Model the fold of this input.
Amino acid sequence: MKAVFLDRDGTINIEKHYLYKIEDFEFILNAIEGLKLLQQMGYMLIIVTNQSGIGRGYYTEEAFLRLNNWMLNRLEVEGIHIEKVYYCPHLPGAKVEKYRMNCKCRKPSLGMYEKAIEEFEIELSKSFAIGDKIRDCEICFTTDCRGFLIDNNESTDVINRVKLGQIKNVQYANDLYECAKIICKMDMEET
Done:
């Protein structure tokens, strides 16, 4: 199975400081079109998101899940199916004790990706990771998965290194929709 691993904040929706309220959620321009295109190309859509705001005590896991379910329902209305959302609430210095740990799921660790790969038998050589931070593409450094760094939420140095092709298996794109168009072109060239 081929899949696209998607970061949430800054990739699908506008990055807002520890977003958890439905009324503050805004899709990035053309993100829905990008998701539709990826789905039409046969990619399973999987969200992989750090949610340290839970561990920091800024919002509860229930508040995250409420927003998450709202977003998934909103996408379903648009004909977009997200296969699963993996999230990490942990943080080594978390204020909320039950989330205070060095886990294997918090990006850049690969725990959430590994769970998805096992659960859905994902073929990494046919898959992509997309995010607005280089940690969202960490899986690309040690596997055949290819990635896209989007937007400008990363340091200028990292963006320039990606643009110069200095980071393995990762290229730069302006947004999720541009990534989808590039992936579509790559698929056509590979078949």
